[in-house]
Amino acid sequence: MEAFMDKLIITSRQGGRKLIDLDRPRMTIGRAPGSDLPVETPLASRVHALLSARSDGVYVSDLDSSNGTFVNGRKIERHLLRHRDVIRVGDWDIRYIDGNVEPQRETTVAPAI
């Protein structure tokens, strides 16, 4: 049973940020209008990458994109995401937040005095 939903923090080159729930078992990333996570950059392919939730975690897979998909600065074909990993698609950063880790981390922060 998953207590908290995984999330993505998407940051564009211009500095815009958006928080998205990872609420489907498969989500496409790319410039195509029908992408689940549209990225508006000429450096991304129309269908660039795929996020897929499996029993052992969430994976990101490159879909033969022109410029590649990177996780934490390393070019990948397929990668099992860990909490706070950063996926780079073109000049956009997508940070993965594991819903089972982040709430626990927040509860350990001492209240401000």
Largest sheet: 6 strands, antiparallel
Give the mean pLDDT.
Answer: 88
Count, helices: 1
Report how far apart the termini are.
36 Å
Beta fraction: 35-45%
DSSP strand count? 11
Uncertain spans, ≥5 residues at pLDDT below 50? 105-111
Task: Report the structural category.
Answer: mainly beta
Question: What's the helix-strand series?
Answer: EEEEEEEEEEEH
* Gyration radius, rounded: 15 Å
- Describe the strand arrangement of the main beta sheet, using strand numbers: 2-1-11-10-7-8
Helix coverage percent: under 10%
Shape category: globular
Question: Could you please describe the fold and organization of this structure?
Answer:
The chain has 113 residues and is mainly beta. The chain has one helix at 102-107, and strands at residues 7-11, 17-21, 26-30, 37-38, 49-54, 57-62, 69-71, 74-76, 78-80, 86-89, 92-97. A 6-stranded antiparallel beta sheet has the order 2-1-11-10-7-8, with no helix packed on it. It has a 5-stranded mixed beta sheet with strand order 4-3-5-6-9, with no helix packed on it. A hairpin with a 2-residue loop joins strand 5 and strand 6 (57-62). The protein is globular, with a radius of gyration of 15 Å. The model is unreliable at 105-111 (pLDDT under 50).
